[in-house]
Amino acid sequence: MTSWSYANMTNWSCQGFFSKLSFIILLFSHTEMLTMRLMKPLLLILLTALLAACSGGPMNTPTATLTPPLPTETPPPTPTPIPPRELTICIGQEPASLYLYGGGSSRAMWNILEAIYDGPMDTAGYQPQPVILAELPSLENGAAVYETVSVERGQDVLDAGGNPAVLDTGVRVLPAGCHSADCAVRWDGISPLQMERLTLTFRLKAGLQWQDGAPLKAADSVFAFQIASDPQTPALRWLTSRTAAYRAVDELTVEWQGIPGYLPADYGMHFFLPLPEHAWGRYTAAELLKNDEVNRRPLGWGPYQIDTWTPGESIRLSRNPNYFRAAEGLPRFDLLTFRFFGEPADNNIAALPSGECDFVDDTVNWEGQLFVLDELQQKNGSG
Fold it and tell me: Where does a domain end: 289, 317, 343?
């Protein structure tokens, strides 16, 4: 016999009400022990219990849980970007090259090179001041030394007229202790001859770097001297012909030695502006003349580095990230642009009020145009 209980009945879900009802009827139809007289009251009781369970019994209804909203964080305000500070300079000439020994030296070229080369010296109060040098040579600091040396036939010397010469019979020179043509002597080719010689020592500041991060060394200055002395370099030989030796003493120290008889008063000019041996040392002097990077985007150590050169239009520079004076807040401008408006002053002056240029350099021909500046200044003053 099939067994069941009331407790099981009350746990039946209401969703299966009709299927459970059919089961009850089927159950009673197969029960022989019960009489029809007893079936009706029992069926009524079962139906009542089932209806009560569907209508009022406990239901397993899911309960919705309210989750309080999480606090939202207010994002920090986005800082307003500061536009880069830019200075635009009108320049009267477009240089043919920016290579130091390219043979096309011009004022326009040097105005631009001053932005990528800092020093090696500046002038303050009409006095030279070291920039990339620890100090300038002097008799007081022992970096300038005069000495008396014996000279022989065939040796390079400076003659009494101030010109480099090869010592030979009949050459007029200033012997040791003589500093004017009044005491000059003509060498007889036999007598011992002594002349004075100057030696200068230059020491670079520590920590200097090229714009690509390579250290700037004494060897870079010696490399520049070698390029300047090379016969394939179209440069003036005035200084190299008066130099007997130029060598690196250590990583930061260079020693210059003049030919006997050459006794200059300006010591600083005898330091050769460094060239990046680590980048250019693999080229010959002739190859450097044709190299586009050397002529258009030379490496420097100064406040700016060249980004682009648009022929006929402009040269654009940006801050050098390895500039040794960056901690001083230098340079003041983030971007520097040289624009080519030609030598006539009128084009350059017209670019000032339009904002195309902030400054006009000294390569512009101002002849007959200064009155225009006066009118422009009066107009701005009354505006």
Answer: 289
Choosing from 255, 289, 323, the residue where a domain stops is: 289
The CATH number that applies at residue 186 is 3.90.76.10
Its domain, for residue 37, covers 6-56
| Token pair recorded at residue 140 | 């007081």
Do the bridges between strand 121-124 and strand 127-130 make them parallel or antiparallel, or are there none, so unpaired? antiparallel
**Residue 71: inside a domain:** no
74 lies in some domain? no
208 phi and psi angles, rounded to 5 deg:
-70, 145
100-156 residue pLDDT tens: 999 888 899 999 999 999 999 999 988 999 999 999 999 999 999 999 999 999 999
Query: What are 145-164's pLDDT values in tens digits?
Result: 999 999 999 999 999 999 99
Q: Are residues 281 and 319 in the same domain?
A: no
pTM: 0.76
Structural domains of the chain, count:
3
Q: Which residues of 194-229 are buried (b: 16+ CB within 10 A; e: fewer)?
A: ebbbbbbbbbbbeebebbeebbbbbbbbbbbbbbbb
Contact between residue 353 and residue 376 where contact means Cβ atoms under 8 Å apart: yes
Residues 108 and 133 in one domain: no
Task: Compute the residue count for the chain.
Answer: 383
3-state secondary structure the chain: CCCCCHHHHHCCCHHHHHHHHHHHHHHHHCCCCCCHHHHHHHHHHHHHHHHHHHHHCCCCCCCCCCCCCCCCCCCCCCCCCCCCCEEEEEECCCCCCCCCCCCCCCHHHHHHHHHHCCCCEEEECCEEEECCEEECCCCCCCCEEEEEEEECCCCEEEECCCCEEECCCCCEECCCCCCCHHHCEECCCCCCEEEEEEEEEEEECCCCECCCCCECCHHHHHHHHHHHHCCCCCCCCCCHHHEEEEEECCCCEEEEEECCCCCCCCCHHHCCCCCCHHHHCCCCHHHHHHCHHHHHCCCCCCCEEEEEEECCCEEEEEECCCCCCHHHCCCCCCEEEEEECCCEHHHHHHHCCCCCCCEECCCCECCCCHHHHHHHHHHHHHC
**Pair (227, 104) in one structural domain:** no
